[in-house]
Amino acid sequence: MRIHQIFFNIFILLCLINLNINIDVATCHCLDHQQFMLLHLKDNLVFNPATSKKLVHWNHSGNCCQWNGVTCSMGHVIGLDLSEEFISGGLNNSSLFKLKYLQNLNPAYNDFNSSIPLEFDKLKSLRCLNFSNAGFHGQIPAQRWGLFYWQHVDDLLYMLVPQFGFVYEQHRGQRYRALRWIV
């Protein structure tokens, strides 16, 4: 009877290991259309390959969820760190705005030297955004973007936020305290 228990425990252990491996593969493998959008984004960004530490390594081979600067969940891109890639130019008409599961975006320390794209409102899952020294200028359309849903918005001090006082007062005391950092 004891031998049956040992074999049963080994069987359960092997099943759990197999299940764990299958879950890991499902959550870590980049979906083809996600990889296509990232490569399209890369192709439309102006950056210096000699100074790039992330974008220069993005290519058709390999799993995009393992690329430097990319975070995935269930094969969908949920995080994108483009910081310090010395990107110049804008983000307009970019496949970036088709990454509908994107939650965290860090375009900090680049030189976009453009107005803030209105297409940011397409990123409905976006919760964290770091604009520090990204080179964007102009107004943030707070109502259009739904800023009060964001959990963290970094370094927007030099940008004007229309109706900011109203948005903040409406949501003060709730989990949207990060808005206090916007002036």
From TrEMBL:
UniProt key word Isomerase: no
Gene Ontology terms, MF aspect: protein serine/threonine kinase activity
First-tier enzyme category under EC: transferase
Compartments where located: Membrane
One Pfam family in the UniProt entry: LRRNT_2
One GO CC term on file: membrane
Top-level lineage group: Eukaryota
EC number of the protein: 2.7.11.1
Keywords, ordered alphabetically: Glycoprotein, Kinase, Leucine-rich repeat, Membrane, Receptor, Repeat, Signal, Transferase, Transmembrane, Transmembrane helix
Bilayer topology annotation: Single-pass type I membrane protein
Signal peptide annotation: 1-28
Domain Leucine-rich repeat-containing N-terminal plant-type: 33-73
Protein name: Leucine-rich repeat receptor-like serine/threonine-protein kinase BAM2
Species of origin: Glycine soja (Wild soybean)
